[in-house]
Design brief:
mainly alpha; 1 helix; rod-shaped
Length: 37
């Protein structure tokens, strides 16, 4: 049971990390596009 919970937590943490990084990249690219205008 503990292994299942740990696996789910790891999966959620990995998803949040990837999503957060992608979101930050979108924000940076959006800011750079805004500055270029």
């Amino acid at each position: 049971m503990r292994r299942t919970i740990a696996g789910v937590l790891l999966a959620v943490a990995a998803t949040v990390t990837v999503t957060g990084t992608a979101g930050a990249g979108d924000r940076i690219s959006g800011l750079s596009q805004f500055d270029s205008r």
